[in-house]
Design goal:
heterodimer, A: alpha/beta, Glutaconate Coenzyme A-transferase, ten-stranded mixed β-sheet, three-stranded mixed β-sheet, about 15% helix, globular, B: about 230 residues, alpha/beta, eight-stranded mixed β-sheet, three-stranded antiparallel β-sheet, about 20% helix
Chain lengths: ~220, ~230
Amino acid sequence: MSLPSRDKIARRAEQEIIAGQVVNLGIGIPTLILKYLNWEKRVQIHSENGILGMQSHCSRETADRNLIDAGGGYIDLVKGASFFDSSLSFALVRGGRLDIAFLGALEISARGDLANWMIPGKYTPGIGGGMELAQKARRLIITTLHTNRKGQPKIIESCNLPLTAKACIDRIITELAVIDVVDDQLKLVEIAEEATLEEIVEKTDAPLMIPDRNLPQF
Amino acid sequence: MNKVTNIIDAISIIKDGQTIMVGGFGVPGTPFMLIEALLQQGTRHLTLIKNEANEPHLGVSKLIEAGRVDRLITSHLGLNTTVLELMHNKKIAVEFNPQGILVERIRCGGAGLIGFISDIGIDTVLSQNKQAITLNGQKGVVESALRADVAMIHAAVGDDLGNLVYEKSARNFNPAMATAADIVIAEVESIVNTGSLDPDTIHTPSAFVDRVVEIGKLQDEYGILEHHVFA
């Protein structure tokens, strides 16, 4: 039986993480990466509320009222974890010490712009730490379903929604494909086992470079 | 100097129309007892500065729901649909900041600076109405410092001189806010004798703190939120 789409994306995204990296996982599919994370890589996961070295959501028995992640969930720590205030937490992000961040998307443009924080008139909760993560992580991976709830492409020529950050995306991982942003262009680099080239092109509303060779599957 | 006082006396310095910083990120570090005392006091037309608005019927959300807050300077309200609705119905004015910019504006205010330059959000709607500037060839916008009349802080331990120690993820905005207000009120879970805290472990030095309130047995609000237990 094949994995649900979100799990397939999370499992593939986990492979982007290199041993020893400092990692931030946004809410949604990015948090699901924890389920597939190989802890032998000894990564340190950053949480915006002032934690480096969070592990995973913990049980009711071990939940500590003073130990939550940025989404409010109770968490465990790995060995070597540290606590700090919010100012230092974002010094870590803006100062270039965050190796890789994973975020979700509402819209992605052909040049790697990201919109993921606001639908004017409908969804306006504020940006939180998302803008700083998108702009300043050394590598930004977007993990998202290929289309929105209405079945419309999320990857489009240019974003209609207010931007989170311009030209910030390095790689997009969906249930259908892995797509890189290279020199302001989208390039298909991997295809999901169950997906076809035709399906990916049909569900992507932006120019997509397709290499003239067999692409790896995931 | 002994800064320990009772909660009613501590809160009595807060007047209508003032700007109040409130520590905390979710439940950890939120000074629920000070918020409750402020609610009981009936103070109105407040401007609040807080990372988020807690969750419906909890913490600062109670002040907002009671109509005591005219304006909220914050980062994210995703966990508080009640306050979002009040915002949409124009019952409260909300100013959103990127989270790290919000805390840095507070840090600047506390450090006696006028503002700073940042490139966060320069290509977005958040840079509108901000002064653009180029320094050393880099484009940015000017972010102004934030200060408040009063800061309300939560710490795990304090001494009667006002030294504070925070616990785990309850530190968050508290240390920055403790530097950025004319009067700083800290509620602490326990008070120890001055001299018993190791100077190396103190997070906020006593000079920043004006009043210390011991909150005693923790009320339910400080406990685990069952809907956030995921595993």
